[in-house]
Amino acid sequence: MNGNLIAWEKANIHVLSHVVHYGSSWFEGIRCYKTKKGSAIFQLQTHLERLYESTKIYRAEIPYSIDQLFDAVIKLIKANKLESCYIRLVVFRGFSELGVYPLKCPVETVIAVWEWGSYLGKDSIDNGIDIMTSSWRRFSGSTLPGMSKAGGNYMNAQLIKMEAIENGYAEGLVLDVNGNICEGSGENIFIVKKGVLYTPPLSSGILPGITRSVVQQLAFDEGIKIREENIPREFIYTADEVFFTGTAAEITPVKSVDRIRIANGKPGALTRLIQSRFFDITGNGNNTYQWLTWL
Ligand SMILES: Cc1ncc(COP(=O)(O)O)c(C=O)c1O
Predict the structure, then answer these.
(1) Domain boundary, last residue among 114, 134, 159
(2) How many whole angstroms from 246 Cα to the centroid of ligand 1?
(3) Atom of ligand 1 nearest to the CA of 210
(4) Which residue has the least CA distance to atom 4 on ligand 1?
(5) Domain range for residue 30?
(6) Above 80 in pLDDT, residue 247?
């Protein structure tokens, strides 16, 4: 926390910190995998670069360099003697004086690590999940910049997630302001139709997911045709395959949307192929792409 290794119970902030009142934080979730070749952090550099971009949009300056945070993450995992873990970096505006204007508040930086399993339930990766279209919409770029992974954005995500869970679904699919398909509450979405891999563009307000870029690269290298374009809501019901991507969700197949079954309700061949390429990296430790940082 702010450059020091401190015990879990001492990681506290003042209740009048700017972030508590106005949602002014930016964060990253990263995974460290126990691969067959040893423990490795997936896409650490890329996550740190996104954190800097998230803060820059809001004129917040992280008082550490990317290299310093890179080293701090590794040091923290080693200090906690973890072989695999979830890594949470959060940068937020602390206390100076209360009021919306944020630029007098100090920018604080915290990294935490802990053991973590599958996000969307035990068999979700193998068998897929049931999702619903949310009655909420993702905010437009003129309301909140979706490219910034800001804490305040997750008020919207909470509404989507609560509605889905309370209605018996694993996750919600949110539409953009124009009614096109956008993403999950914490995942990007991919749709396969006639062998083409579709995903919404950044202009639909999605978070530029790192797993999304990884999947696009893996698919490209498999010779799969990729299209980034606005996708009407109804396109998903007649899809051949649907899957979510994210650091937490990894590659999670979707078996139904709004109780309409996707194809035969089983993960499709292209989803399985992308999953196997992904788990070859995070499970077997294949580092051809140099996306792994060994501990
Ligand atoms: C709203 C939202 N979309 C997409 C993602 C997936 O992004 P990534 O693959 O970088 O974890 C996340 C998770 O961070 C998210 O919170």
Answers:
(1) 114
(2) 5
(3) 10
(4) 187
(5) 8-114
(6) yes
